[in-house]
TrEMBL record:
Source species: Halomonas lysinitropha
Domain of life: Bacteria
Lineage of source species: Bacteria, Pseudomonadati, Pseudomonadota, Gammaproteobacteria, Oceanospirillales
Transmembrane segments: 6-22, 34-56, 62-80
UniProt-recorded name of the protein: Uncharacterized protein
Keywords recorded for this protein, A-Z: Membrane, Transmembrane, Transmembrane helix
Transmembrane recorded as keyword: yes
């Protein structure tokens, strides 16, 4: 059980760190400050399970895991991320 739990926690922490770094580099949407680490956390957990499946099916190397985390954070906060709503002027 610890063979899966420790890498899962490390991947989630890495995702939260990368999400926080994206917020600090002033990506669009930074006014919602908690969104970035949470997206990173979820992306880390999802990337871990995607990597488990890829490793089981194709024997994917371990270095794909951080690449998957960074790619998912970029996708979820960038092109597939929340849209900016224009502010109404009266």
């Amino acid at each position: 059980m610890l063979d899966l739990l420790i890498p899962l926690l490390l991947t989630a922490a890495f995702g939260a760190l990368i999400g926080t770094l994206c917020r600090l580099t002033r990506w669009p949407g930074r006014e919602r400050s908690l969104l970035f680490p949470l997206v990173g956390l979820v992306a880390g957990v999802t990337a871990f399970f995607i990597h488990l499946v890829l490793n089981w099916v194709t024997g994917a190397p371990i270095w794909w895991l951080p690449v998957l985390v960074i790619l998912q954070i970029w996708l979820w906060l960038g092109p597939l991320g929340p849209r900016q709503r224009p502010k109404h002027r009266e």
